[in-house]
Amino acid sequence: MAEESFLADDFLRQLMSVGEVDLLVGIPSYNNASTIGQTLQTVEESLRQNFVRERVVILNMDGGSGDETRQLFERRSERREASHKGLTTLRTIHRISCEYDRSPSQGLALRDIVAAADLLRARACAVISPATTNLTPSWVANLLRPVYRESLDFVAPLYERSRFQGLLARDLLYPMSRAIFGNRIRELYSDEWGFSGRLASQCLEQDVWQEEAIRARPEAWMAIKAIGAGLKCGQYYLGPKTASAAASGPDIVEAIRQTVGNLFWCMETNQSTWNGRSNSQPVVTIGPDHELSSDGVPPSQEKTFDLFRSGVNELEPILASILAKDTHAQIKAIALTDRAKFHFAGELWVKTLYEFAASYHHAVLNRDHLVQALVPLYRGRLYSFLQEHANSSPDEMEGQSEMLCQEFERQKPYLLERWTAKRE
Amino acid sequence: MLLQDENLWYKDAVIYQLHVRTYCDSNGDGIGDFRGLTSKLDYLQELGINAIWLLPFYPSPLRDDGYDIADYTSVHPSYGTLQDFKDFLVAAHNRRLRVITEMVVNHTSDQHPWFQESRSSRENAKRDWYVWSDTDTRYQGVRIIFIDTEMSNWAWDPISKSYYWHRFFGHQPDLNYDNPAVREAMWEVMKFWLDIGVDGFRLDAVPYLIERDGTSCENLPETHEVIREFRKRIDLAYPGKMLLAEANQWPADVRAYFGNGDEFHMAFHFPLMPRMFMAVKLEDRKPIIEILEQTPQIPDTCQWCIFLRNHDELTLEMVTDIERDYMYDEYAVDKSMRINLGIRRRLAPMMENDRRRVELLTGLLLSMPGTPIIYYGDEIGMGDNVYLGDRNGVRTPMQWSGGWNAGFSTADPERLYSPLISNPVYGYQAINVDSQRRSAHSLLSWTKSVIQTRNAFKVFSRGSIEFLNPSNHRVLAYVRRLGEEKVLIVNNLSSSAQAVELNLQMYKRHIPIEMFGRNLFPRIGDLPYLLTLGPYQFYWFRLRRI
Question: What SS3 state is found at B502?
Answer without folding.
Answer: strand
